[in-house]
Amino acid sequence: MSRVITIGEPMALFVAEQEGPLENVERFDRFVAGAEVNFSIGMSRLGHSVTYITQLGLDPFGKNIEKFLQQNDIDTTYVKYDATFLTGMQWKQKVVSGDPEVFSARKNSAASHMDLETIANLNWDGFDHIHLTGIPPALSGGCREMVYELMKEARARGVQISFDPNLRPGLWPDREEMAQVINDLACHADIVLPGIEEGKLLTGKQDVYEIAAYYHAAGVKTVVIKLGAEGAFTSSEGEQFYTEGFTVKKVIDTVGAGDGFAVGVVSGILEGLPLQEAVKRGTAIGALAVMSPGDNDGLPNRESLEAYMENVMVNL
Fold first, then answer.
1. In which domain, by residue range, is 20 found?
2. Annotated active-site positions, please?
3. What pTM does this model have?
4. What b/e readout covers 5-19, taking b as 16+ CB neighbours within 10 angstroms?
């Protein structure tokens, strides 16, 4: 299997035990959140080797996050601690359907103080792929500079790059700067994975074909646009196709679905699957992700993924 590297901000996540506004909730279950954490866990469960780079606060939540990563067979060689700043935290509403309310306490977090020094001793030997999102560049100027350097080094070394915009408008000064930086970063990637609404916001285009063409013109080889329950649209080197989404009887929590989709697509490509099969795997993992309450507890191992996909196909 492949060796994959990623970088991000993991956070302590507290999910409400009962429904209703967060201000009225008294009890929470604790998880670990973070787009890149979700991606790392999903890839690890499918048998790929994952190294996660981050900076945590020297606090109980930071220590718990490192243990959590290790328990999920994720390499924490490049996890650092900061004695001055704290680990970021999130609180998430419990809902019957739709997107939950999420409140974050991440400003000035330990992870937001990552910079070029964070990756100064990174050993690239043996890595096949790097997965990046638009979240770290939004945290600080130092984080942004670090992501640019990772992309530059990956390209120089021939390491494949996937990029998920994963937009967080609240972390940016304005949408214009967000679009400019995210698009610039996306143009350095081999695979770009925007959601349809993200694609519209970033490119000003309303059609999947035009969105894909925008990134192809900038040099991106493969563009996979997430369409939610409808599936995905893929454009790569003249090949264009739609992939239907898997039917979900009950949506429990949509957070993490896009990260699960990225797991399916990237793992499939790294394993040499035809692109259509890789994207189909992505839609399957995305469907599984929305049927569980945590951000990453619904991500499957290889056996459960194959069983789910086979069962769905049999019952079509």
1. 3-314
2. 259
3. 0.94
4. bbbbbbbbbbbbeee
